[in-house]
Amino acid sequence: MTSSTFSAPTAGLAHVSVDAAGDVSTTPPTVAATPVAAARDVSIEDLAAKIRAGDRSTLARAITLVESKKPDHQAKARALVQALLPHTGRAHRVGITGVPGVGKSTTIDQLGANLTAAGHKVAVLAVDPSSTRTGGSILGDKTRMAKLAVDRNAFIRPSPSSGTLGGVAAKTRETMLLCEAAGFDVILVETVGVGQSETTVAGMVDFFLVLMLPGAGDELQGIKKGVLEIADMIAVNKSDGDNAVRARAAASEYRAALNIMAAKSATWTPPVVLISGLADQGLDAMWEQVEIHRGKLTASGEYAERRRVQQVEWMWSMLEERLMQALRHDPRVAGRLGTLESGVRDGTVSASLAVDEIAGLLGI
Ligand SMILES: Nc1nc2c(ncn2[C@@H]2O[C@H](COP(=O)(O)OP(=O)(O)OP(=O)(O)O)[C@@H](O)[C@H]2O)c(=O)[nH]1
Ligand SMILES: [Mg+2]
Q1: Is the pLDDT assigned to residue 88 strictly greater than 70?
Q2: Residues 24 and 18 sit within 8 Å (Cβ to Cβ)
Q3: Is the pTM value of this prediction over 0.90?
């Protein structure tokens, strides 16, 4: 009723001009609209402080900010990550890969539960740019990590629902830093062992674990040599029950395969262990290897060097991503990109000619 009096600016002004104390009477309705919006805009300092205090909902909101495609959100996310940077870097970053169904989620769930029981705080991140295409993967992971999902000392975050691998990976890196600032001292990054994603994840962790299935014979034939090259350890999963014998045979085949390959590090020979994520067998011994690796490579200086190299690689991959984004939205080429692309597709324009023209339009 009275609000309608204030809704028209003229009414408010008229009111002030009549009453000497008019500024007071106009205050409630006019001013209300603006500060509410401003209050929603929490400052970087507040966000950073809450994250450092381990506030889970703020952490989740900050990750959403990191994943946002809006330029103002991205700028805020960058400022937040920068503000938190001094409080990052203390976690053990472990990547876990393997073919679909090898038992990554099951193993992470059990390993994570063992680690939180031992006093660690565990964050689980996923790099899976294909998850929207394949459907239930994200939900699947959530339900398959039943133990961690209800563990106060664990935090599970699926990968963004869309984007290029580079984009998803960039978000995962920043998410990892936020989790570290929030006090998580173990970060487990799950990625499905197909395509490029395992190389990308290996480039952001301290230790890269490859899970394999028993029954190596066939698998060894099909396995990408590249995966063995980036592995810091191979764990033959599902080594329980009837699989035990086959798992042992598989393990010796992997040992032999690793032996004939050039070592990734002078200090570390990737071990091959037998585990069962489901039955919680061999997981403690497996984690012990991760700890030994950290000790040895810290002593040799490789641990810190690996992180330095990764940081520089990260800078370049972010720059590439940013430049490509800028290029796609650049008004100088906007009108030509589509036409050139279809020309290249139907063979009327050569790819190199198209690149020449685009570069020419951009003056590069
Ligand atoms: N016997 C046995 N089964 C297992 C083990 N680990 C996982 N499984 C089973 O294997 C199936 C796949 O396990 P997940 O943990 O979902 O595998 P994943 O590698 O995360 O699969 P994606 O995320 O789809 O790539 C499930 O039915 C698990 O119960 C194990 O150690 N032993
Ligand atoms: Mg999984």
Answers
A1: yes
A2: no
A3: no
Question: Rounded to an integer, what distance in angstroms lies between the CA atom of residue 162 and that of residue 159?
Answer: 8
What is each CA distance from 55 to 43, 109, 134, in whole angstroms?
A: 15, 22, 32
Residue nearest (by alpha carbon) to ligand 1 atom 22: 100
Among protein residues, the one with the nearest Cα to ligand 1's atom 7 is 103
Asked whether residue 143 carries a pLDDT value surpassing 70, the answer given is: no
Looking at residues 335-351, what average pLDDT do you find? Answer: 96
Pocket mutation for ligand 1, best pick of 97, 106, 212 (most atoms within 8 Å of C-beta): 106
Report all structural domains of the chain as residue ranges with CATH numbers, in order of start: 89-300 (3.40.50.300), 305-362 (1.10.287.130)
Q: How far is the CA of 111 from the centre of ligand 1 (A)?
A: 13
The pLDDT of residue 262 is 76
For ligand 1, the distance from its centroid to the CA atom of residue 6, given in whole angstroms, is 63
Which ligand is in closest contact with the Cα of 192?
1
| Six token digits for residue 307 | 């992180």
Name the residue among 174, 188, 53 with its Cα closest to residue 122.
188
Reported as a single tens digit per residue, the pLDDT across 168-205 is 777 899 999 999 999 999 999 998 876 678 888 999 99
Most confident of 5-9, 188-192, 220-224: 188-192
CB-ligand 1 contact for 282 (6 Å cutoff): no
| Residue 158 CB coordination number (10 Å) | 18
DSSP state of 160: P
Residues, the chain, total?
A: 364
